[in-house]
Amino acid sequence: MRAIWKGAITFGLVNVPVKVYSATEDHDISLHQVHDKDGGRIRYQRRCEICGKIIDFEHIDKAYDDGERTVVLTADDLASLPEERSREIDVVEFVPSDQIDPIMFDRSYFLEPNSDSNKAYALLRRTLEESERTAIVHFALRQKTRLGALRVRGDVLMLQSLLWDDEVREAKFPALDERVRISAKELEMSRALVTSFESDFAPEKFSDDYQAELRQLIDAKLEKGDALNTEETFGDTAEEGEGEVLDLMEALRRSVESSRGAKKKPAAAKKSKAG
């Protein structure tokens, strides 16, 4: 894993330097859009509405529009904000872990101690474990001020960004205001049904069947020769001002060529069903 940010957990006079890593990743197969008639790649361009030119990222600023006026904010403007320059994960309070509504959880990050902060890191981790509390923290990441929950996961401290209170919607539905009579027999049967499904949660038991079936479909099309020549169909995959964009079909073609002659492995979908 590669660290995306470096900072320090601070509370009182305690300072724990850490490296921050994304704790999750997307396993979905990447797909793009093509013209249904000839398979030509559909691309989106960053075109200026005034001069009509295609603009590179380095020349793109952000702006706020209130409907009548537009305020342009440059990268320097945003970097000048005090919160953006902060490298502290500031603990503001320690709360009972069960008081945090799961709906507020957003992104998850692993925290690794710097080589000189192992003891302080271990002390904070053990304190959170034994007190059964979660640290509510304040930090800035990627030009946003964030609220977060600092908790323990195994041997690692995990930081989970939280949604702000006004970002969580209220659920008010007229149907819920209607009085509903539930009999003792209905409740008993419902509880029995729940009991019949009771188990300990083991996430490794579950797999993404759709992605496995999609991979199987792509492999089947490749084996049948039902594929397009990437270079001829899509042209140059690198746009001016941008790095190379490796097309999914091109990646698959290279993989097939490199494994040609090797013993064919069972499809991923069959493996998951057999397990």
In summary, what is this structure?
This protein has 8 helices and 9 strands. With 275 residues, the protein is an alpha+beta fold. A hairpin with a 2-residue loop joins strand 1 and strand 2.
Give a structural overview.
The structure is a single chain. The chain is α+β, with helices and mostly antiparallel strands. Among the domains are: 5-25 and 81-164, Beta Barrel (Ku70, Chain: A, Domain 2); 207-274, no CATH class. 27% of the residues lie in helices and 24% in strands. It has helices at 75-79, 82-85, 118-131, 184-196, 209-223, 230-234, 248-258, 268-274, and strands at residues 5-11, 14-22, 62-65, 70-73, 88-96, 105-113, 133-140, 145-153, 156-162. The chain has a 7-stranded mixed beta barrel. A two-stranded antiparallel ribbon has the order 3-4. Helix 5 (209-223) crosses helix 8 (268-274). The two termini are 28 Å apart. Mean pLDDT is 81; it is low at 237-252 and 266-275.
At the first level of CATH, the class of the domain at 5-25 and 81-164 is Mainly Beta
Strand content: 15-25%
What is the C-alpha radius of gyration, as a whole number of Å? Answer: 26 Å
- Which structural class is indicated by helix and strand composition? alpha+beta
Distance between the termini: 28 Å
Please give the largest β-sheet. 7 strands, mixed, barrel
Shape: extended
| SSE pattern, N- to C-terminal | EEEEHHEEHEEEHHHHH
- Return the CATH architecture of the domain at 5-25 and 81-164: Beta Barrel
Residue windows where pLDDT falls under 50 for at least 5 positions: 237-252, 266-275
CATH topology of the domain at 5-25 and 81-164: Ku70, Chain: A, Domain 2
The number of E-state strands comes to 9
Strand adjacency order, main sheet: 1-2-6-9-8-7-5
